[in-house]
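Contributing new records

If you add data, match the layout below exactly. Sequence lines come first and carry their own label; structure lines follow with theirs. Keep one chain per record. Anything else will be rejected by the validation script.
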Amino acid sequence: MTLDQLDLTDLDFFVNGDVEGAFALLRKEDPVHWQEKRPGRGFWSITRYDDLQTIYRDPETFESGSGVTLHFAEGDDADGGLGHSMIMTDPPRHAKMRQVLSRRFTPRAVAPFTDRIRAITTSIIDSVNEEGKCDFVQDIAAQLPTAAICEMMEIDRKDWGLMFAITNEAIGRHDQEYARGRSGRETVMDAFRRASEFFTDLAAERRRNPGEDLVSALVNGTMSGEPLSRPEIISNSFILILGGQETTRNAMSGAMLAMIENPDQLAKYRANTAAPEAIEEFLRWTSPVTHIMRTATRDIEFQGRKIRAGDKVVLWNFSGNRDEAQFENPTRFDVTRTPNDHIAFGYGEHFCLGANLARLEMRIMLHEVVTRLADIELAGPIERLRSNTIGGIKRMPIRFRAAANAHSAAAV
């Protein structure tokens, strides 16, 4: 593979190609790499850990409001309904918007959900335990995050299927299983249309009957004394559903696959599921959000390259989490790795709001899986999401047996 052979917009490459090798080549030979498929239409790829952090720390020079994924750089300018959300908002408004929800996601605020997450997790494993086989993604990994975020938003259980469907379509806009013959733009905008209708009605109900849920927080929240606009309420409700499901689902699925492929690490994790180091390695290894994009607000020289105002700058989190200069033996999956200052949740002011919830869900669910299910192995080929934005697995059939002397999630 050579630099001129690389095409980071080729979604099939992210399903079947040597992605790890491609980013190793970029870090070594061209860590600030320009790719242009059409004259004047291209983007910069940032692949080294330190460079990623530098750009994450400078929202004045590298802004979020003009798009946060490569879809924008490639001309698919549908923001998926996120244009008014905190993920596409820049200072000083970003911090004010984030404060409306941030106190709901502190470790102290998330802690009361522990028992409920344990109960949901136990029920999920109970439902597959006797079968001896299941699809890990569909039957296990996807179930807990959907239930958890929907309960925090007090979304009725009858609507969980809708939340799951619109998430799949928004994230998998270029995967034909979810696009079903539509363009990426058509797919994501249809998902947002249904989300907008749903959250418009839900927001109206929460104005009449406010509670302690996340939607009520948005409806009744203020920024500098002013309430959030309707588009801000809808967009942030949508980003809560997307983020609440996708990051955790894919981190758990990727972590389980890594442990199946590395039985020695599975044994180490099973012996000490309470070790926080393991959760951090699961996040580093999977890097569920493969990239985040920024747009340069001014001309700047960066690592010897001239980035122009308006240029798209793509921050490859996956590559940063494999950087040899930051991590010892970065291509080795090691559940005891320390230190592990990964950037799976991003960095700086846009650091993932739900990180504490995601860690809690992963800790409880993966403990339950490895202590109640034994001899876990793949039972067929895995299917990956066709995306360069989300490092997702759509299906992962496994087989197992019920473990003798298994102890429940109440132990963690």
